DNA sequence: AATTAGCACTTGATCGTGCCGAGTGCTAAT
DNA sequence: ATTAGCACTCGGCACGATCAAGTGCTAATT
């Protein structure tokens, strides 16, 4: 675990992992010697490989096979060995395309980001829209639709406005509705649903006068709006990409992957349980959602003004193009955060989008 | 193709298909004779099977295997042979649970319906939200957020209200905003975006007075709101269920299934191209989305007031529990239609939900 | 002392072989 | 018209031989 690897060992380890990431097969000493990366004979490399195996960085599927990185090996690679990734021009353009479309709903942005990241990395992607910690309605607005129904508009946040149609048993007028609107704004703005007591509800009902009977359906709507938006949502994009990787070409592996992805609850818990500022990389058994321990989960929480609003990431084999994926996830999540900040119309000049 | 099947042949064909649907393996004469369904010896059954095979209703995977229904066989089964399905009490409860939750957004309803139908049938499900033919804003409402921004609320239909935040370069007052609101409601309600000419836009800008500069961002929002909602959306739920069926246990089959499901465009075209009043059953090669011709697509459009608003269905192997799936799709789509009708608060007493 | 060449050994993958059983088609008997 | 019986076909599976890749070890080399 400690950094007790000689420079040469690191070089060889990196070469093994790079090669394995590229081709997916166990890599042997001969191949490494031939590639020219390392100026040593295969025999010497063999000795080093044996030691790296001893130390737990590599594994042999069987006695006469090449070496494959172990979890520990991947971990070390990700932490210390990996180089940055150079994005191609096309990729940059696609990223920008997404990020310049400003006037879109949060759901759609995150959804599209999932799709995009799946395309860019060629792995199945997950996109999560988190529930905010505690939510309240910032402002109510009522709009008469016809004599017996009105639209209840609830501004929860800049990017999140919920509307519901409410039907009344008794005829409505504009003026009465205005009164109700004022009552709601005075009594319920900034209130969490579980802070509301029965006596308060009675007061509200009284204040609403002739339209007191509307209180109950309205409160129900509010409760549902806050609740509905409270439910986190996880989407999976591009499962079919699993099939491109030989490690999942066995039906059993595939099954365990698909089962993991359909177990959205657990994935959500993992994603929401992670702290936000870093790209999270769970290799093999570190990825608790996957029983088989043969997959890697990479994701990053999207932070806006210090609060998590969602997350995007990918799932793939342990043999993953880590540098590319990590930098893509990093960049895209930052881009989305910036985009959402920009979409909030309140100007906040002291905050700048990260590059 | 004609109904030139003797009663006995029909009976045997039905027995073969039922058995095959139940167990998934080719069924032989012996099995049928043993099952007691048919009071004939295996030899006689063999002769009938041979004729049914001749006629194209059955197939033999190889010389010494039992028979498997052909597409034509399934088609005949679905059209003439199949019995109705008796829903269990639990299933009825689940259906009702979904259908009694009234105050939810269209998107979520259809989404959940997809999930539910996938659970009930145990096949992967598709859920489509269709775009309406032509859309217009029914009503505009502006809400001041702060001095430099306001909320633009567009009522497109009862179940579809879009909100966007618009930022202004110049300070805003409540009164000016009311004026703009009136201008919008007078000039743009019921207008399709491509009916709007430049000269009309100029008039609007003039009518908006000091806030004329807001016209362009507002129009952009309107355009996007109508457009965004115009995009049909197809979701797939429960892909992992493919793995439960032996016909998809080969990776290649699985690949073609997943590829089909990720080709949302084509699926959408099929679903939106179908007429609405019936459950559509595309067996094998009839399902154009699937190159392999080894899957069946069953779906039904959800009609509300004569217009399609979406669709739900399932995808599975040709060997499918047709009667169960068809009745589930049927029932659920009707239920959803009824639910949405109920959600539209405008009372329409002359229409009743189908049972 | 470190590196390299050479060689015997291990082991999964591949391919051909033969056996088994399920199911058929046909013929002859009922 | 139905059924019993029988020879035949063909996929699936287990077994075994062969192959190639890659190793670990020892002895030679720098």
The tally of structural domains of chain A comes to 3
Uncertain residue ranges of chain A: 345-355
Going across the biggest sheet of chain A, name each strand in turn. 7-3-10-9-8
CATH structural fold name of the largest domain in chain A: Beta-Lactamase
Shape of chain A: elongated
CATH class of the largest domain in chain A: Alpha Beta
CATH architecture of the largest domain in chain A: 2-Layer Sandwich
- CA(first)-CA(last) distance of chain A: 34 Å
The two chains with the largest interface, and their residue counts, are:
A-B, 44 and 45 residues
Note the run of SSEs of chain A as H and E: HHHEEHHHEEEEHHHEHHEEEH
Number of strands of chain A: 10
Proportion of residues in helical segments of chain A: 40-55%
Q: What report would you give on this structure?
A:
The structure is a homodimer of 355-residue chains. Chain A is α+β, with helices and mostly antiparallel strands. The first copy, chain A, folds into three domains: 2-81, Winged helix-like DNA-binding domain superfamily/Winged helix DNA-binding domain (Arc Repressor Mutant, subunit A); 89-131 and 232-343, GAF domain (Beta-Lactamase); 139-229, 2-Layer Sandwich (Enolase-like, domain 1), CATH 3.30.390. Chain A contains twelve helices and ten strands. Chain A has a five-stranded antiparallel β-sheet, sandwiched between helices. Chain A has a three-stranded antiparallel β-sheet with strand order 4-5-6. In chain A, helix 1 crosses helix 4 (71-81), helix 2 crosses helix 3 (42-55) and helix 5 (89-100) packs antiparallel against helix 6. The radius of gyration of chain A is 27 Å and the shape is elongated. The two termini of chain A are 34 Å apart. The model of chain A is unreliable at 345-355 (pLDDT under 50). Chain A binds chain B through residues 103-105, 108, 139, 141, 143, 145-146, 148-149, 151, 153, 155, 158-159, 161, 163-167, 220-221, 224, 228, 238-240, 243, 249-251, 254-255, 258-259, 261-262, 343-347, and chain B through 103-105, 108, 139, 141, 143, 145-146, 148-149, 151, 153, 155, 158-159, 161, 163-167, 220-221, 224, 228, 238-240, 242-243, 249-251, 254-255, 258-259, 261-262, 343-347. Chain A binds a DNA duplex (30 and 30 nucleotides) through residues 26, 28-30, 40-44, 46-47, 49-50, 60-66.
């Amino acid at each position: 675990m400690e950094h007790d690897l000689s420079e040469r060992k690191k070089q060889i380890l990196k070469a093994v992992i790079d090669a394995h990431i590229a081709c997916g097969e166990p890599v042997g000493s001969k191949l490494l010697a031939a590639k020219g990366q390392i100026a040593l004979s295969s025999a010497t490399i063999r000795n080093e490989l044996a030691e790296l195996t001893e130390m737990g960085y590599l594994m042999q599927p069987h006695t006469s096979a090449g070496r494959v990185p172990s979890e520990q090996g991947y971990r070390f690679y990700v932490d210390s060995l990996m180089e940055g990734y150079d994005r191609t021009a096309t990729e940059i353009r696609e990223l920008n395309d997404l990020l310049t479309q400003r006037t879109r709903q949060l759901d759609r942005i995150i959804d599209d980001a999932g799709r995009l990241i799946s395309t860019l990395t060629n792995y199945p992607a997950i996109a999560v829209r988190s529930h905010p910690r505690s939510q309240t309605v910032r402002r109510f607005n009522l709009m008469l639709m016809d004599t017996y129904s009105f639209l209840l508009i609830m501004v929860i946040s800049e990017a999140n406005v919920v509307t519901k149609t409410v039907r009344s048993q008794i005829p409505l007028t504009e003026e009465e509705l205005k009164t109700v609107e004022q009552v709601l704004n005075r009594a319920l703005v900034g209130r969490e649903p579980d802070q509301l007591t029965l006596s308060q509800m009675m007061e509200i009902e009284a204040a609403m006068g002739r339209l007191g009977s509307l209180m109950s359906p309205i409160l129900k709507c509010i409760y549902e709006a806050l609740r509905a938006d409270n439910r986190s949502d996880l989407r999976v994009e591009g499962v079919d990409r699993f099939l491109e990787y030989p490690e999942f070409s066995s039906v059993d592996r595939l099954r365990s992957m698909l089962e993991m992805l359909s177990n959205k609850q657990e994935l959500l818990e993992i994603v929401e349980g992670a702290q936000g500022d870093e790209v999270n990389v769970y290799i093999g058994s570190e990825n608790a959602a996957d029983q088989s321990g043969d997959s890697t989960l990479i994701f990053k929480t999207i932070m806006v003004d210090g609060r998590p609003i969602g997350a995007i990431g990918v799932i793939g084999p342990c043999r993953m193009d880590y540098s590319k994926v990590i930098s893509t996830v990093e960049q895209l999540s930052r881009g989305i955060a910036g985009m959402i900040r920009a979409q909030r119309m309140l100007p906040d000049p002291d905050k700048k989008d990260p590059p």
